[in-house]
């Protein structure tokens, strides 16, 4: 177990590094892809992704000693602390008991066209659980942070727990509807979910950024969100934020979220319950996601 005082100290380090990176992030908005990850061009990275991840990795390892898992370069650096052991995560692969997880440009496709729904995600994972979460949305001037147990901070100020839901104005974030990259969750099933949830909450929103969706849910902009990414770097920071704000996060079956889970449901307790009911109303043409 990491002591709360240590989490606060690690959070301070991560906050400084993220804020120091925001100028580079903003100056290069609109950067074009420099690394194509697959043949259909649906997954790519920019030089900013690569540069920021290297910067974060070097400094986080230097200042904390923990290894870093990043979207672009995988798991590298650092060492396990005395008593640390590897834990099963991310589909059964061995990961350190404690590690940083970073996505230097979440919403890269938005970033390349100067869509402001993109950000920087940093989290600390301990025994498979996010215990620190930071989401910076520099082009919106929003900075969300939390340690396990809360409270949520927005732009450095404590933020009140999620408010009661007003059904007249509720907005729900929704993950990719058409992207072929989410092939583990069939496209038709995603579209069926969209229509099912829309029966209860017609104001659905697609930002193109898992980090933004979860930060907005933590901050009460969205009452809830449904995403389909299996990637730890997409989900971990926002999960910590939502939980710190008093929200609930599970997989699509309503079971506790764990690393490697494909998809998650997040929101205030009442919204989360309704979202699960709408999800369960849709026949699933494949095996459970967890």
Plain-language structure description:
With 290 residues, the chain is of the alpha+beta class. The protein folds into two domains: 4-158, 2-Layer Sandwich (Fructose-1,6-Bisphosphatase, Chain A, domain 1); 172-280, D-Maltodextrin-Binding Protein, domain 2 (3-Layer(aba) Sandwich), CATH 3.40.190. The chain contains seven helices and 17 strands. It has helices at 4-27, 47-64, 108-111, 187-200, 210-218, 232-244, 269-280; strands spanning 33-36, 44-46, 68-70, 74-76, 87-89, 93-95, 98-106, 119-126, 129-137, 142-147, 153-154, 157-158, 172-174, 204-205, 224-227, 248-250, 264-267. It has an eight-stranded mixed beta sheet with strand order 4-3-7-8-9-10-11-12, with helices on both faces. Strands 14-13-15-17-16 form a five-stranded mixed beta sheet, sandwiched between helices. Strands 1-2 form a two-stranded antiparallel sheet. Strand 8 and strand 9 form a beta hairpin. Helix 1 packs antiparallel against helix 2 and helix 4 crosses helix 7 (269-280). The longest helix has 24 residues, at 4-27. It is globular, with a radius of gyration of 18 Å. The relative contact order is 0.13. Mean pLDDT is 87; it is low at 80-92.
